[in-house]
Target: Mitochondrial cardiolipin hydrolase
Amino acid sequence: MPSPLCQTAGFWGTAWCLLLKTCSLMADVLRFGLQSIGSSLVALCTEASAGHLPEVHRTSWDFFRSKARLAESGESGHTELLEHVGFASAAWLFLVFSLWQVFSFFRRTLFRSPEVLFFPDASGKNRRHICFLLREARRKVWVAMFALTDDLLSDELLAAFKRGVDVKVIVDDEQCGMLGADAPKLLDAGVPLLIDSSPARMHHKFAIVDGCVLTGSFNWTKQASTTNWENVCILRDPSIVAPFANEFTSLWREFSGRSQDMPESPTSPARRKRDATPGKRR
Model:
């Protein structure tokens, strides 16, 4: 059985070992390339100068005798060498690509600094950035939002759900019955969505997107992004993301045991009649 590539234990020990071996392989490939170029240049210069010698001198020159021997056996050896070099080069490229993917993953999840977005944003850049994060989600999008009426953000939630991302949404019951609320649309599409039916307000405004959390004063409404003064902090520290995930899990478990009747829309006849009745206004 061949020996393992690295004998060093631990993640960082193995990473350091692979880095050293990668550098060694790069040095070998560079050395081989320089030697090949040097040999080719020497051969060209020697042949050019030997072309002016008489035939009798050529046959007695050690260079031509060695060249004749190499011509007989060099073809197979050269082919074998190219096979080994080709395999080593392919292995090296694969290793470099794998290390780059690992580095990119850690850079995205651990080493990126926090971001702060402010609204209103006339350019729409900050709103598009939130859409980009939702679009890039691969594992989960958990949203606890007091008001959810922004069709653009809701469409990104729906798109994430359709591509297999774990999407869960919690909204406040009264806001869920607002004109333009997107909760009914998400429910009709099959997105797991729970409504806070308690007397208290579900006033959270945060979303967990893979390894980061978006939190602040920002409701997912068109008015919040274009009119109100709002803020969103995007945090990637696992020690901060984990408590938000625990809070969402706790809320999901609590609201799952309650009635999930959808509040009536303000435009429904029953709601208009009740609101017009004296003493029934809320």
About this structure: The domain at 115-259 is CATH 3.30.870.10 (Endonuclease; Chain A).
